[in-house]
Predict the structure.
Amino acid sequence: MTKQQTVLVTGGAGYIGSHTIVELIENGYNCVIVDNLCNSSYESVARLEVLCKTHIPFYHVDLCDREPMERIFKENKIDSVIHFAGLKAVGESTEIPLKYYHNNILGTLVLLEMMQRYDVEKLVFSSSATVYGDATRFPDMIPIPEECPVGPTNPYGQTKLAIEKILADLYNSEKETWKFAILRYFNPIGAHPSGLIGEDPLGIPNNLLPYMAQVATGRREKLNVFGNDYDTRDGTPIRDYIHVVDLAKGHIAALKYLDARQTGKGICREWNLGSGKGSTVFEVYRAFCDAVGEEIPYVVTGRRAGDVINLTAKPDRAKQELKWQTELDVATACKDNWKWATENPFGYQLKGVKADFST
Ligand code: NAD
Ligand code: WQD
């Protein structure tokens, strides 16, 4: 890289954004964060500054608010954007869909308008394997390639697909200009090995790893395993779990890919970010118990509505084109997750009080 580039990281105080900032700074990029802290706290930014030994400009701004968004673009010479900001709870999105459509889509539209106005052409977007919906509709397409027909089954997934389409339309309108990398993440897990940053869900965790961690630290009684009657090797569903540090590195690979494109040669393309290896719930449970060093209580309950049997990535495109592949396994992710959980049993909350140093 010739000159130090500045990346605007939307949602940079959140789980995946914060881990990506560590990798960006290690790779010589400057970062500016914009986050409204609706699902995170300023404490993660404070810790990032400790971890990265540098000041990271932070804007406590909602992406849907045009004026403060414009100020960010005026005050900083932004070269590219990584766009994590969004609401992500699948269940909640079925209960309050308008909030999800408003936040995720309007926030993206405002961001793109500012990028257009200030001549920022490169964007890496956080999409999700959830856009494939129930990919078992296409048994020949498991593991799932990017060509698999999409078909989200919940409003959250619809917002991701809608944003993918907005990006494609914008690219088609000015193919020489826009450079868009759409990254479809599979199941991110784990935490930074320092134990300083990690996933900090509000309320009762929806996802497997954070829930198990809260059982292991005594905050919850037992894990509910949602069904053991699937047609898999042990009866529980299969997912492609990916260490969040590997995932973060995938963003650097995508950004470098966009950086390397010649002027006048735009792109809008999707890449799966997964390991290509599927694990069952019981396999992850076993790896986590091994990391903890004791058996975690669990009970098998009924299937969770909307769960599918198998979501495993075919990650070949990212390997060939982005020169990226996962390096860390589920056991390492469990070990790192457990370090984060034991060193921060209440996440970023200090003594049970939400820390917020943004004022
Ligand atoms: P997260 O909730 O930890 O981070 C998202 C951040 O965006 C939060 O800090 C939140 O405060 C912020 N935010 C939300 N709406 C905003 C708005 N309007 N303006 C400003 N900030 C806003 O979630 P994450 O797990 O880090 O996910 C990051 C992105 O990756 C999301 O877009 C999510 O949909 C996507 N994704 C996540 C997963 C996963 O399992 N974690 C999987 C696939 C895709
Ligand atoms: C994994 C497995 C559960 C919790 C979700 C979103 C998806 C993407 C990633 C954003 C499943 C089982 C879970 C528990 C359990 N996010 N499980 N007991 O559902 O694969 O994906 O996060 O884009 O869109 O849907 O992840 O961690 O919730 O579940 O048995 O308490 O663990 O049934 O098989 P999921 P998850």
Observations:
- Residues 141 and 253 are 25 Å apart (CA to CA).
- The longest helix spans residues 97-117.
- The two ends are 35 Å apart (CA to CA).
- Residues 88, 90, 128, 130, 187, 206-208, 211, 223-226, 237, 239, 281, 304, 307 surround WQD (ligand 2) (CB under 6 Å).
